[in-house]
Amino acid sequence: MSKLKVLLASSEVYGFAKVGGLGDVAYALPKALRSLGVDARIIAPMHRKKGRKVGTINVKLGKRDVQAEIYLSRVNSVPLYLIGGGGYFPRNQVYGYEDDFERYLFFSKAIVEFLKGYNFWKPNILHLNDWHTGLTAAYVKSEGFPIKTLFTIHNLGYQGDVDTSKLNLLNLEEDITDLIIHNNRINPMKAGIVLSDAVNTVSVKYSKEIQTPEFGFGLDSVLREIKDKLYGIINGIDYSVWNPIRDPYIYRKYSTRTLERKEENKKMLSSEMKIKPSDKPLIGIVSRLTHQKGIDVFLEAIEEFLEDRTVSLVLLGSGEDYIENKAKAICDEFSDVVGISIKYDEVLAHKIYAGSDMFAVPSRYEPCGLTQMIAMRYGSVPIVRNTGGLSDTVIDPNENKNCARGFKFESLDVEAIKKALSRAIDVYENNREYWKILQLNGMRADFSWRGSARKYLALYKRVLSS
Ligand code: ADP
């Protein structure tokens, strides 16, 4: 069989434009695929003008003809096609405009025009990601374009839906339009789900959860209907960035064989965050402070432990006011054991992974989650809610004593979190030998992109033969 060719379409690519985990995936996965012999390339909106102009294409939006420009660039050694023009791209921000639907409709349609117009390179698989590219699946079907499509859901909470007054922009037949309307709204996320040849999410557990009303954001019944073509593949983390042996940002580098040096990272982190050095466990948090992440409840649960000075806490993140304020209040009250930093700070994040003993991820829902995997790679033992990718990557001693690498709790309530914290503290204080096993199990686990890329490759092949 000739070389598999994959075009990955994403609104974000780290290095050009990144808002969340999607940017990391679009950056890392194509490179990992190429190292497996796949000719993987990327197509993205031109958030920044870069590269060489290679052509123009016509994109029809309703009655208007809009000219799109195509630029060719490279990212992470992977060819990258950038689509701009029409006043849609570039702009200052990736999202957040009144006409976001129209911008990404333009991009979605331009992808198909690009494939039709640029037939020197004919991919076998079009890998679409999140709502921004969902409508592309509709145009591929509508035109009968010969390519297989995989649609990846990174976060079902964002569907890009708009009211039906925008229908006239679509130029789609009625039978296809009917399929992409949900609750009387045009829903690009639904378009990707129902019209692609296969669908996956970024963990196996999340792929099951989204079929339930609790996690389905109104699309659970749609997802149940297509469950036979729905898969879960966990994301990887970038090992060239996240590696305590070579990390230039941390105070003292260490490995599984020099784990005692982690102690120095803890001391220096405590000093930088202006808390008392202590031999009690230091809990780290690095997170967007949004409702999704459950930090509000976690801060309530930890109060009693801070009062008793049984743990200390270092928190880095920013987001919604009520969570930021809660963090500040706790820091004011327990300033000798709580250090917080309300901002985005790449370097401090590395120091927290290296300097903490435990790492909390109490998310309400978590499609994949990267921070728990990074924490484990740095020998910081995660305490997580048993949901989505957290569930798939952390193993609790109650599940498997020998392979355990963290602690899980079921429901997001104060009592459940306290219980998990107590279990972790008990091992830390009374069974150091086992604590070290938990750390080493995490550090030795394989969270690399290579493993995930293999799974994507297998899924592409499955889609091709379907
Ligand atoms: P999400 O994409 O939902 O924000 P993930 O766990 O998938 O959550 O990815 C979060 C990434 O962002 C991790 O690499 C984490 O280290 C980083 N991060 C989150 N908040 C901050 C912050 N305040 N400063 C630095 N890095 C952060």
Overview features:
alpha/beta, single chain, six-stranded parallel beta sheet, Rossmann fold, binds adenosine-5'-diphosphate, nine-stranded mixed beta sheet, 38% helix, 466 residues
Percent in strands: 15-25%
Instruction: Tell me the CATH topology of the largest domain.
Output: Rossmann fold
The DSSP helix count reads 16
Indicate the mean pLDDT: 96
Question: Radius of gyration over alpha carbons?
Answer: 23 Å
Question: Any overview of this molecule?
Answer:
The chain is an alpha/beta fold and 466 residues long. It folds into 2 domains: 5-236 and 450-465, Glycogen Phosphorylase B (Rossmann fold), CATH 3.40.50; 259-446, Rossmann fold. The chain is built from 16 helices and 18 strands. The chain has helices at 21-34, 100-117, 134-143, 174-180, 188-195, 204-209, 220-225, 262-272, 295-307, 321-333, 346-355, 371-377, 388-393, 414-430, 432-444, 449-465; strands at residues 5-9, 39-45, 52-61, 64-75, 78-84, 125-129, 148-153, 162-163, 181-182, 185-186, 198-201, 230-232, 282-289, 312-319, 338-341, 358-361, 381-385, 407-409. The strands form 3 sheets. It has a 9-stranded mixed sheet, sandwiched between helices. The chain has a 6-stranded parallel sheet with strand order 15-14-13-16-17-18, sandwiched between helices. Strand 9 (181-182) and strand 10 form a beta hairpin. Helix 3 (134-143) packs across helix 5 (188-195) and helix 12 (371-377) packs across helix 15. The chain is elongated. The chain starts with a strand and ends with a helix. Bound molecules: adenosine-5'-diphosphate.
